[in-house]
Amino acid sequence: MTIADLKPGQTARIQSIDTRLPGVVRLMVLGLVEGADVRFRHAAIGGDPLEVSVFGAAISIRKEQARQFQVAGASAHG
Prior knowledge:
By secondary structure, this protein is mostly beta strands. The chain has one domain (3-76): Ferrous iron transport protein A (FeoA) (SH3 type barrels). 13% of the residues lie in helices and 42% in strands. The protein is built from 2 helices and 5 strands; from the N terminus they run βαβββαβ. It has helices at residues 24-29, 63-66, and strands at residues 10-17, 37-43, 50-54, 57-61, 69-76. Strands 4-3-2-1-5 form a 5-stranded antiparallel beta sheet. The chain is globular and about 30 Å long. The mean pLDDT is 94.
């Protein structure tokens, strides 16, 4: 499962990251790192980009980039 597979309100922990796609390392600098909990907030009309929360900050990422972040432990968050 990747960040792109999460549904609005779900939280999961980043397990691994494929850094080959341009821009992924920049997202890691913003806090999307292994072990971080990420919450899917919502997607724009058409499904791209996605907005996620990590360490209290909201970050918009392209769906293609979100697929590079493997996550586990997805759960609903109230």
